[in-house]
UniProtKB/TrEMBL annotation:
Keywords: Cytokinin biosynthesis, Hydrolase. It catalyses: AMP + H2O = D-ribose 5-phosphate + adenine. InterPro entries: LOG, LOG_fam. This is Cytokinin riboside 5'-monophosphate phosphoribohydrolase.
Length: 195
């Protein structure tokens, strides 16, 4: 499998560690150098803006997807290859999924968690079979991974669902794992139009 576009979920803030912004810049640059389109939330601030700017500076294709009511609030990026404006957050996530061959989460807040878990849930339900990667910058996702393992131990998350995503500390390793991803067969009856 060769991923041609990656949807990035990450903070609209830069966080407290310089490593977070460095990872966003490196990811944007790496995707551009590998001719992988970057799909993201369309903003020009925080880690989102850093990744988009780095990809554009390296000659990459960057596609933003932003709901109209957030266009001004998030300061929509004006220099993108494409900017799609949706009516709702739900339409935003559906379009981002449709435009992407895989998903990467960098550090972020509630919006990042929401987008990540929606794609994990859609993967669990076989709505999509695309790779999902967590770039674990400075161990940012360690508490989240512990919570997910706790959900398995307590009987709320099937152990097989741990195979829905890959985790790596470096971009190169993450992209290798995502390209090697093969979805486990799941017997579900849902399709994208039924969610």
């Amino acid at each position: 499998m060769t991923i041609q576009s990656v949807c990035l979920f990450c903070g609209s803030n830069k966080g407290t560690r310089a490593a977070y912004e460095q990872a966003a810049v490196e990811l944007g640059r790496t995707l551009a150098q590998r001719d992988i389109a970057l799909v993201y939330g369309g903003g020009n601030v925080g880690l989102m803006g850093a990744a988009a700017d780095a990809a554009l500076a390296a000659g990459g294709r960057v596609i933003g997807v932003i709901p109209g009511f957030l266009r001004e609030k998030e300061l929509a990026h004006q220099g993108l290859s494409e900017l799609h404006v949706t009516q709702t957050m739900h339409e935003r996530k559906a379009l981002m999924e449709d435009l992407s061959g895989g998903f990467v989460a960098l550090p972020g807040g509630f919006g990042t968690y929401d987008e990540l878990f929606e794609m994990l849930t859609w993967g669990q339900l076989s709505v999509h079979s695309k790779p999902i990667g967590l770039l674990n910058v400075d161990g940012f996702f360690d508490p989240l991974l512990a919570m997910i393992r706790h959900g398995v131990a307590e009987g709320f998350v099937a152990e097989g669902n741990l195979q829905l995503f890959v985790v790596a500390a470096t971009i190169d390793e993450l992209l290798v794992r995502m390209n090697a991803y093969r979805p486990a067969p799941v017997n579900k009856w849902l399709s994208h139009d039924r969610i």
